Amino acid sequence: MKPHAWIESVNCAIEGILWSVRTQKHLRFHFLAASVVLLCALVFHVSALEFMLLAAAITLVLFAELVNTALEAVVDLVSPDFHPLAKRAKDVAAGAVLIASIGAAVTGYLALSRHLFAPLTDGLNLLGKIPGEIAVIAVLLVTILVVLCKALLGSGTPLRGGMPSGHAAVACSIASSIALSGSGALITLLAIALAIMVSHSRLLLHIHTVREVLAGAFLGCGVTLALHLLFRPH
Prior knowledge:
Largest sheet: none
Number of domains: 2
CATH topology of the largest domain: Helix Hairpins
Number of helices: 9
Helix content: over 70%
Radius of gyration: 22 Å
CATH architecture of the largest domain: Orthogonal Bundle
Oligomer: single chain
Strand content: under 5%
Structural class: mainly alpha
Order of helices and strands: HHHHHHHHH
């Protein structure tokens, strides 16, 4: 029955949130992560603008997760048996949560990185002369390009198989950023070796072909190198 009073509507909304938290482990994780981020904001005394961005990101993620939960419940009611369209609806709703979470992660990094990583960076010089934001954006851009390529070519899934290899692309992107950061020859060689092992594992597991792995490696290295050359400080 539709609530008649405003307070009844509020109670229904709260009941919906509590039910979602009780039944959805992902929502419980998002609430826990939100609490940690807010505590970090208090500890590091972030600016008003940074706090507003963090609050907006948290709100967006929780909103997307609640809408996803509601849509899943409606789909289960309408289509209790398996149906391809029901699966698509759930997958798209989950994709909305994923995009909101990635956006929140980027916002959290931009707002808190100078508080969390500045002492470590100053002490160990981990990022050299190149801002860490370029490396993060490079990984995100490479991931987006991998998903687009797989969608256009209609092969594999985002995490398994298809052209190009996403694991090889991301691993080579990270290795390229480390190599370009001036962290030293030894660390660079270790990063390259790790990227090679990640790429080789996709061949050993028979998930990708040599061509797919090489395509991913070239994509990761090429995009990362281009971003560093275009946007690194001079």
